[in-house]
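Q: Here's a chain of 162 amino acids. Please give me its 3D structure as tokens.
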Amino acid sequence: MQHTISVLMNNRFGVLSRVSGLFSSRGFNIESLNVAESSDPTVSRMTIVTRGDTAKIEQVTKQLNKLVDVIKVVDLTEESFVDRELLLIKMNAEARVREEILRIVDLFRAKVVDVSPSTYTIEITGDEGKLTGFLDMLSPLGIQEIVRSGRIAISRGNKSIN
């Protein structure tokens, strides 16, 4: 089962390395990893997507909590949350497919952020399903390059990790 884990930690060098080392030493793959400062510049928030059964994920979260610079760990999978990814995609924009690309961009509420004589660069945000559907529609039209941010997530409602 896929799990989305949110970690608050001190914003210090080496913390990311220790967290990723904890996963690799236990044979877990990190499918997606995002880290950035929170509203407090001394604290970072990390969103980790991994797979495992409940017992193994519980073991990993307990080990994360033992790391010195970790403030709080929450497995968001156990609650209601909102998640998003950012996707940048560079398309071959030959004259014969430009209108079709722009129709798909409009349909998915994406945005063209760069235009050249032969390419469009498109930005889209959404959950994994939306991005997969978008890529499925664009694939036959000539994708040159894809960059994905990975998942970020936050609890719904009044619940906060802070």
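Q: Can you summarize the key feature?
A: The radius of gyration is 19 Å.
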